[in-house]
Amino acid sequence: MADLAKYTIALAGNPNSGKTTLFNRLTKSNQKVGNWPGVTIEKKVGNYTKTKPGTEDKEIVNVVDLPGIYSLTPYSEEEIIARNYIVDENPDLVINIIDASNLERNLYLTFQLKKLGCPMIIALNMMDEVEQNGTKIDFDKMSEMLGVPIIPISAIEGKSFSAKVAKLMGYKSSKIAEGGIERLIGKANDILDHSFKYFGDNPEAIPASGQKEPISSESFEKKKFDPSLLKHADNIDYDEHSAEIYSEIEKIVSATVREGEKQVQHDRTKKIDGILTNKWLGIPIFLVVMFVVFQLSFTVGGIFTDLIDVFFNETLAGFVEEWFTAAGTSDWMTDLVINGIIAGVGGVLTFVPQIFILFVFLTLMEDTGYMSRVAFLLDRIFTKIGLSGKSFIPLILGFGCSVPAVMAARTLDNEMDRKTTIFITPFMSCGARLPIYAMFVGVFFSAYYGLTMLFLYVLGILVAIGSAWLLKKTIFKGPSSPFIMELPPYRFPDLYTYAKHIWEKTRGFVIRAGTIIFLASVLIWFLQGYDFSFSAVEDSAESILGIVGTAIAPIFEPLGFGDWRAAMSLFTGFIAKEAVVSTIEILYTPEDFEMLFTPVVALAFMVFTLLYLPCLAAFATIKRELNSWKLSILAAAYQTAIAYIAAFIVYRIGLLVVESGIL
Amino acid sequence: MASTLNQIKPGCSCKVVNIGGNNILKNRLLCMGVTPGTVVEVVKVAPLGDPMELKIRNYNLSIRKKEASSIFVEDNAANTKNSGSEVI
Ligand SMILES: Nc1nc2c(ncn2[C@@H]2O[C@H](COP(=O)(O)OP(=O)(O)OP(=O)(O)O)[C@@H](O)[C@H]2O)c(=O)[nH]1
Ligand SMILES: [Mg+2]
């Protein structure tokens, strides 16, 4: 599809201005949006079709969503991606998305884009918020002053479902922006159709409609731009230049904008921040929120977990057994399905409710604007270790999944900070590790579910911070980069997108259970039932898995889990962390499980799985982002070593506590 | 009176005079609108004492005190509100 595209439109604008929201609308995609700067870190391509004017022919228009940039001088990796795309790839049209509630700063990039000379339209987004305040903007005049067509829009509006819910919530829609997206598409198509003709014989013949003066043919010599804009920030000093642009912007804004009476978003944000980033309450609230999430995932998630568990282990297993016996299916097949697949896959699916609740919270954090506040709250701790508070955003994303989290480190301005963050991100306990804790905690610490979880998550954070400190002192030495971060106004999450995100992420886990965990379960079942000559064994200790496991297990003896089954589950955990659960479900009977693990051993085991090397997918991402085998293997080895040490300490202290009879 | 931004108390406004520091920092601040003549309000300081939250050109920005110390300001701007950068 992409290659057949006739035209390409690039979406450019400041971070958090709504580019991805618009992209999703234009291309009917489902890319991630969130109310914090730096959500999009890669270019994403989608497309829509239009009709060639005067014919019935369909033409494909590619739309490219780019990471947000404040200027064409890039500082961090994702900004370089955006800058390079706009400058080097010569899109046929740039749609500059501007947050209308934040005009001055957004227009700075507009001035720079204009200088590049590519055809451009401004989509003035967030008009709903502007209108809510009673602010009036003279679009025609602004368009004239800027020399660029302007179309007011509200990228979140018009989706039938969420629009209705939004109305119920007392949310005001924008009159001016109604139908804005359609107008935007119309305008874009118009320019695409005409600009094509400009290269023909008579460029002046067709003025772009609605524009005061025809786009001069010269502006289509896209390669002609000011090369001084492209040098790296180090070598430039354009003090004068920026100040000049801003004074010009101020002139335009004061001539075209009449501020309204109200400041709805600012007032709301001020009120919320009065509590959430309050001097005394800010940090305690963050900790309490985390604790409540874990507790909720236990109580609410637990209800569903039990139901799913009963469904798999009793209803489904019982049904299959009856059915297979009636059909005369061979024993090995019955065993594979019941003790391999249902135990392995079911064991993981059981914990989907917990993962769901985790994502309900994480996504809420991203969509409301709390994310940047957490970085704000905790930045001081990061200053101490030489990192930027911005590192906390990848770390929090790491609670969901290490893969996007490692990639999010791209938003860090400084290369050493980025590498350090990639190293430590896997210490953040990802969603796939949740089933492991849920399983152990459910059996051994059920009275202290929330606390044990909080302990594990906080331990992960502490180890990450300690490691960052160590890394910045040794292999990733360098000055700490400046911390300059926008704090967006709090927004009510768009319910449709919100629900969709949670659904997508939860679905991801279910799909993994049906694919990778399914295969792993079959493999484990086979390896634990057959020996090296591929004949079935009675005692699984004599199986392939048993023999290899027994050889390896002594390594883990000092940590308390020198049992071969526990050792093997750690190996399968490299495929995907949930596979630890599958392996344990397949290999242990419930009685064995409770006999071989004591609470202390269980805790040491959880600590080990929290910290040891990341799963295959995360490792591959780390390798790609660090672009070095050496460093990524070092990272995995480091993580495993730390896991070993930490589990050892936990085990020994645990034993002492138990022996001393305190507990 | 000239001073640096990190010395301004929360709740007070001031006017940017000049930006020092290295070029990366300087350019970043400039392109985000921290230009000479702009009015900046210090909204608050984070619970652990750093960073600070600023309001500038109608949006909120967070920077560390270290960065703020290279922004020279005059703190008499409380009532000389610059049309474009402060909304009433
Ligand atoms: N009220 C309102 N909110 C909007 C509108 N458009 C987008 N948003 C919200 O603004 C936030 C940012 O949207 P995104 O689409 O992720 O912004 P982006 O420009 O892609 O951001 P980056 O990828 O971080 O550069 C989200 O919370 C959106 O829901 C709008 O028209 N009105
Ligand atoms: Mg985006």
The whole-number mean of residue pLDDT values of chain A reads 86
Count of alpha/pi helices of chain A: 27
Order of helices and strands of chain B: EEHEEEHE
Fraction in beta strands of chain B: 35-45%
Oligomeric grouping of the chains:
heterodimer
Could you estimate the helical fraction of the residues of chain A in percent?
55-70%
Uncertain spans of chain A = 196-237
The largest β sheet of chain A comes out as:
6 strands, mixed
**Biggest interface, CB < 8 A:** A-B, 55 and 40 residues
Q: Estimate percent helicity of chain B.
A: 10-25%
Structure annotation, total helices of chain B: 2
Mean pLDDT of chain B: 84
Q: Would you identify the regions of chain B where 5 or more consecutive residues have pLDDT less than 50?
A: 77-88
Report, as a whole number of angstroms, the end-to-end distance of chain A: 65 Å
Protein name (chain B): Ferrous iron transport protein A
Pfam families (chain B): FeoA (PF04023)
Organism (chain B): Methanimicrococcus blatticola
Keywords (chain B): Iron
Explain the overall architecture:
- The complex is a heterodimer of chains A (663) and B (88).
- Chain A is an alpha/beta fold and 663 residues long.
- Chain A contains 27 helices and nine strands.
- Chain A has two domains: 261 residues, Rossmann fold (3-Layer(aba) Sandwich); 379 residues, no CATH class.
- Chain A has a six-stranded mixed β-sheet, with helices on both faces. In chain A, strands 6-8 form a two-stranded antiparallel sheet.
- Chain B is α+β, with helices and mostly antiparallel strands.
- Chain B has one domain: SH3 type barrels.
- Chain B is built from two helices and six strands; from the N terminus they run ββαβββαβ.
- A six-stranded antiparallel β-sheet of chain B has the order 1-6-2-3-4-5.
- The termini of chain B are far apart.
- The C terminus of chain B is likely disordered.
- Classes of the chains: A alpha/beta (663), B alpha+beta (88).
- Chains A and B meet through α3, α8, α9, α13 and β9 of A and α1 and β5 of B.
- The structure holds guanosine-5'-triphosphate (GTP) and magnesium ion (MG).
- Guanosine-5'-triphosphate (GTP) binds next to α1 and α4 of chain A.
- Magnesium ion binds next to α1 of chain A.
- Chain A: InterPro entries: Fe2_transport_prot-B, Fe2_transport_prot_B_C, FeoB_GTPase, G_FEOB_dom, Gate_dom, GTP-bd, P-loop_NTPase, Small_GTP-bd.
- Chain A: It is found in: Cell inner membrane.
- Chain A: This is Ferrous iron transport protein B.
- Chain A: One of its GO terms (cellular component) is plasma membrane.
- Chain A: One of its GO terms (molecular function) is GTP binding.
